[in-house]
Amino acid sequence: MGDSRMKCRKCGRPAAINMRRHKLALCEACYPAWFRGQVERTIRQFRMLSPDDRALVAVSGGKDSLTVWDVLLHLGYHAEGLYIDLGIPDGGYSTESEMRALRFAESRSATCHVVSIRDRYGLSVPELAAQHRRMEKACSLCGLVKRHVMNGFAWERGFSVLVTGHNLDDEAAVLMQNTLTWQPGYLARQFPVLPADAEGLVRKVKPLCLMYEREVAAYALVSGIDYIQDECPHAVGARTLFYKEILNRLEQRSPGAKAYFFTQFLRAKQGGHIRFAEDREVALHACSRCGQPTTAPGLCAFCRLWASDVQTSAGDEEEA
Ligand code: AMP
Ligand code: ZN
Questions:
Q1: Ligand 1 atom nearest 85 alpha carbon
Q2: How far apart are CA 186 and CA 172, in angstroms?
Q3: Cβ atoms of 248 and 61 closer than 8 Å
Q4: How far is 57 from 74, CA to CA, in rounded Å?
Q5: Quick one: which ligand is closest to 285's CA?
Q6: Residue 236: its pLDDT value, please?
Q7: What is the dihedral of CA 147, 40, 246, 24, to 10 degrees?
Q8: In terms of Cα–Cα distance, which of 137, 112, 196, 175 is closest to 320?
Q9: Is 165 in the pocket of ligand 1 (CB under 6 A)?
Q10: CA of 272 to the centre of ligand 1 (A)
Q11: Residue 215: CB within 6 Å of ligand 1?
Q12: Which of 140, 146, 154, 281 is most buried, with most CB under 10 Å away?
């Protein structure tokens, strides 16, 4: 990915990565420290974490979540992992990714918790989707299940913050999707930090939200992180992949455009220049089955999934 003639800005050795948006080329040895510094700046900028936080990192076994975990450990934060086994069978996707997460934890002497959806609730996500004849919507179902289980686990175990691996490409693609369809509710909530604003909710943060996907991939590569390369088989052809392509074409023509699109949105929001109405003005109250906060009068969207006679509408994938 580097140009062999380029030299590292810091030490003059051959560069391994050239970041056109920063007009910066770095070698394999200098890159990880730079990357961690950038993530630390993001953490400070949005007040994501403090040294006495107990962080739970949601790890999928992919490059983003293992990278964010690695960086937090390097920066000295208390960070444990949570792998959610969704029970997706294709080509051993689930077991391969679980193995990556567990191996990584072992190599860093860190703790990785595992929750199996089938063991805990009786059905895997594909089985659940089939039961609801929502195979085409398996991704939104999966998103709903993951959000519920992550938050519930973090809350039960007393973690003060939940960390996900979303990178800038993820965030910009979601932003594009939500502006093309003008979704005020989703736009209102898209931010690198979501406060725990109800009993039973844990603060959510995305420390990689200002890093490009290729920068994250380069970090994982030079840090020797063994991650699962494949996308989830159900995500192939997802709309966000298409938006990522469009954004990368923009980026090619004008380096930094992808970041600008996202960061100017954040800036305008922070400055109070744009505001979107929350679509959940209705008060949150505890789900009568699991206790997690919900706007629905009885059961939350997750618990309704398991009450087989009730038709459900899962949260949409726009809410990354
Ligand atoms: P995705 O929804 O697949 O784009 O993943 C977004 C983020 O959710 C990842 O960066 C992880 O932090 C987290 N995540 C995804 N899949 C899992 C999983 N099976 N177990 C735990 N966390 C996950
Ligand atoms: Zn519930």
A1: 19
A2: 13
A3: no
A4: 14
A5: 2
A6: 62
A7: -160
A8: 175
A9: yes
A10: 30
A11: no
A12: 154
